[in-house]
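Re: your question from the hallway

Yes, I did run it. Sequences:
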Amino acid sequence: MSDARKNILGRLRAAQADLPEIEETVDFRPMVPSKALNSAELRAHFIREATKLNCIIHEVEDEDAAFAVISQLVGANRRVAAWDDASVPIAGFTMRMANAGFQRVSAESPHAEIGITGVDAALAATGSLVFMSAPGKVRSTSLLPATHIAIVRAMQIVTDLETWFAQQRDDALTMFQDASNVIIISGPSRTADIGMELVLGAHGPHTLHIILPIAHDDPAGSLPDVRPI
Amino acid sequence: MQIKSNNFIPAAQIGINDAEQAAAVRKGTTGAYNNRLAAVFADGKAHGEAMRRQAAAAKRRTLKHLPDLLEQAEARMQANGTVVLWAESAEEANQHVLDIAQRHAVKRVAKAKSMLSEEIGLNAVLQSADIEVVETDLGEYILQINGEKPSHIVAPIVHKSKESVRDLFIDKHAMPYTDDAGEMTQFARQILREKFLSAEMGITGGNFIIAETGSVCLVTNEGNARLVTTIPPVHVAVVGIEKLVGTVEEYATLTQMLTRSATGQTMTVYTHMLNGPRRPGEKDGPEHSYVILIDNGRSKIYASNYAEALACIRCGACLNGCPVYRSTGGHAYGWVYPGPIGAVITPLLQGLENAKQLPHASSLCGMCKEVCPVDIDLPRMLLDLRHDLVEVGVTDRTWDWGIAGWKTVNKSPRLFELSGKAAARGGRFAPSQLPGPLGGWTMYRSLPSFAPKSFRQMWRERNSDE
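Structure:
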């Protein structure tokens, strides 16, 4: 064991007093100034921003319609990876996939062509999706397949990153720290390294579909709870 | 990485004279500069400036409490199941990574972009131990197969044209001919996907570590860092000790300021917060996670007049805005960090005597401070470094002679007047191209013609008339 830790901290402590004291920021301004939005406005805002990021939005009436869209996107003979039922906000999802004849592979399979997930939150200000890893919510499902389909419940849309962190703060950041991996996804994978030309699908999915069932006030119990277990 | 910063002037000339590179750098930096302006001030000038102040305060607070935050972060990361190691030097950091690799019998490493890993020369150390290292950021991968170094801290191949990438892929990997950047990207994606799936270890840097949660935070667009931190069973993050941030609120401000300033995005495609190894029941994610906190000269900067330089969040905005960087490209700066921030931290990390010209590689126009998301006073530091250069006596001899001559002439009224007369009389006979070191002036400018009478002469004549 070297003395690196002791020496580094010692040098920093010796100089610390010379640095100016900075006042605590009491009220953090959010990066995107936002007025209070009702749920319909939040939804519209999210759709607008996600569309700018090249996401494809599918607004559907209910769970059946959501699954119909997914069936259409999957088409025939494509290998599908999906999260566990408890984390996908369409009731009986595994059963529905079996009935529809989907060719299922394991959620972490590198051979999957389409990955289907729920989300943990959506951020309206930036059109982003938040994912917190947990058993049943495999990370690779939203990463390895060329196409990612995410199903978002209307009540999961919050204003922005700052609001989402405030919610995490409410439970003392416990849920946040319990997730080994928290990832915010804003659009399909992209690069502009070659000639500064925008290309979608660098290493992650090149297509990101977001399925957004219309919430008729999102009645409690009609959709499974997708918070981490 | 070997330092060649004392070669700035000839290297800059090479960059300026390479038309293809100059065009690529101009296109890249201009695009990023404009995107930043649009993003930072999307909600008005006042709001953008307020956010800059909020970001600047967050990072200054971090610096003030740095040792405490490091201890807090260490404890949190350990609670998350991460092994935390400390390294005073590049050698010690590399030895840690090597030890980890050998402990887990690693043969292949998939690596995401990390400027710190360039700084400590990590790849060469691993390769000399027969470990394959694959750079997976598309730009970094292109540099790796061509044996080149990055020229920009955010856009590593900003100096390369699309055509040169095409030719490289055809030459090294027999890619079928295409002029389409999308097809080139897909070609590289397929090669690299195999590497990800077979790597036993992933290495990343860290854009931030949130002290209160112990989260290692990364921003990427391609998704390679997600693969690097998801697929291999071992993840190692090499992170500078200055990358701390106290709270999630500060992080929310800084990470969004970083992406706006770097590429003009409101958020990068992938904003990662890594909280250690996979938990029981999870099917993917690393089984072992290590964070190496690296000093390598930073604590020395912390104790100096330049501590503010440690607030840098490496967005690259000062590179994109700098008229010098935009002309020379990044390789001219001769080490890992180019542009105004590089001109400041290269001499601080590598010694003034090894980077004598960098404090002068600036017109002090102030653009770097203006675009900085955390408001670092780079022009002030460049000036102070010039002062230090004189203090420690490592300036170029010709400078010393020139300044000594100027001082002698200006201190003596007689000599001053004489030199004025000589210039007025002799100016007419001066060749349009001056000889020797003075030729640098006349190469791009005409020699000024001096007034036939000096002010002093006119003053005397005017007074004698009355």
